[in-house]
Fold this sequence. Notes:
Elements: E1 2-12, H1 18-27, E2 32-36, H2 42-47, H3 49-66, H4 83-107, E3 111-114, E4 116-119, E5 124-128, E6 132-142, E7 146-148, E8 161-163, H5 164-167, E9 176-180, H6 184-195, E10 199-203, H7 215-228, E11 231-233, E12 237-243, E13 249-255, E14 258-264, E15 266-269, E16 273-275, E17 309-311, H8 322-336, E18 350-352, E19 358-362, H9 365-370, E20 375-381, H10 386-390, E21 397-403, E22 409-415, H11 419-431, H12 436-440, H13 451-458
Parallel strand pairs: 1-2, 1-6, 2-3, 6-17, 8-15, 9-10, 9-15, 10-11
Antiparallel strand pairs: 4-5, 5-6, 7-16, 12-13, 13-14, 18-19, 19-22, 20-21, 21-22
Helix pairs in contact: 1-8, 3-4, 3-6
The structure holds flavin-adenine dinucleotide.
Flavin-adenine dinucleotide (FAD) is lined by residues 12-18, 35-38, 42-44, 47-49, 52, 116-117, 143-146, 164, 185, 276, 279-280, 313-315, 320-323, 325.
Amino acid sequence: VLKELSTDLLIIGAGPGGYVAAIYAAKNKLKVTLVEKSEMGGTCLNVGCIPTKALVKSAEVCHNLNHASLFGMEVEGKIAVNMKQVIERKDKVKNRLISGIDFLMKKNDINVIKGQAAFVNQDTVAVTGNENFIIKANDIIVATGSKISKIAIPGMDLPFVWNSTTALSNTELPKSISIIGGGVIGMEFAFIYKNFGVEVHVIEFMDRLLTMVDRDISNEIQNIAEEEGIKIHTGSKVMKIQSSVDGKAVITYEDKTGEHLLVSDNVLAAIGREPDLDGLSIEKSGVTLNSKGKGIQVDASMRTNISHIYAIGDVTNIIQLAHVASHQGIVAVDNILKKQEVMEYSSVPNVIFTVPEIASVGIGEKEAKEKGMNVSVSKFSFAGNGKALTMNEPRGFIKLVKNNETSKIIGGSIIGADASALISSLTLAIANGFTEKEITKTIFSHPTTGEVIHEAALEFGIGALHQ
Ligand code: FAD
């Protein structure tokens, strides 16, 4: 049986883009139908942000126990990682959040339909699942997210080659792992495995890790990673993966000195994600894809070329971050409500959960200089921060970029303790056009890592007090 439904707003995909848009629309009195083919919460909650951060925490505990003497404690014997229990803990966190979303859907009277959505035409979507539906909607938001990209390296389909999704459910901890890709996902996993005591190699094609961050920051994380014993191979191209006679992974890679072999128990391919349009029959909607032919093309109001169809999140291929997807969802709903909001990307924070963490927001030093802007840069080291020392985390620094003409702080990058939390204050400052003075005259509590922001702002004028 085919059930027919009509709704004000149909949202396809219940990741951080789709489910947040659904709540926001429902709070604004729209009748909302949300279709999800898999688990609520999308990539972020099931195989992305949340599970990786649960593993980051378990790995941090393992690292601290192994270095208990640094905190004045003696731990007898070897710390044994029970990966099965680590994965179970991760699943517990994830499941608790999924129930939270289920609760919010009910509370906001959102009609959730489980099944695969496919366009029939501009206004109609068919859903195939336990029950089948034909849904007619006034407005549609496509929030189908992304999937793991495939690359044509011979041997990628060998059983010991993991991707981020399979790695997150694997209950065996390898003795050694080679990670292909020194981007965000690759580097987060590199520290996770290292802190669990695994031998880790990272192979990166570019000449540096984390090419999206300031070069000083990527140099610093490379130094720290190497100090921790992570082996970094930049400027290296993986040619093939083979299995040795005893079942180990043998990677052949090439750098400017020639060809090399790397042997490890497992390989983690962390080579990127691309928009997921599988089974969506997007061509029947008349929606145009972007120039790369991969994501859905949208304007600043998140509208596609079809005026009542919007797209948000990873499927637009603009920025692959959960909070961007959520905010784009709110902008799309505002436009459906005729509020004419536009998406503004100049102060989107970006966090990388390495150890220490990395976070940045606004314009970087290089970008500002390339644009010919009159800027100055200040720097303050965590070694001069009392709280960081109590945490045994003296590594890292903060860098601020100031527009000399307006005195406004326009960018900031942090590598150091609590960077993921500190970036919120900096984002507030940058998004609201705070000047150097507005930061220096603000009182920051002591002892907190947040004081590095104050110190870096002082560094533009009289100089930081503790450096
Ligand atoms: P998704 O979360 O991908 O959700 C899309 C949903 O649509 C899925 O549930 C899918 O099943 C459903 N769907 C697809 N097609 C259909 C269809 N035809 N019918 C019905 N349903 C459909 N971002 C951060 O901001 N911070 C992090 O720390 C972070 N860590 C990450 C770690 C990893 C390992 C990975 C892989 C990603 C990470 N990300 C992180 C990125 C983040 O997960 C994504 O940017 C975010 O999930 C995008 O949200 P979305 O709503 O656009 O799509």
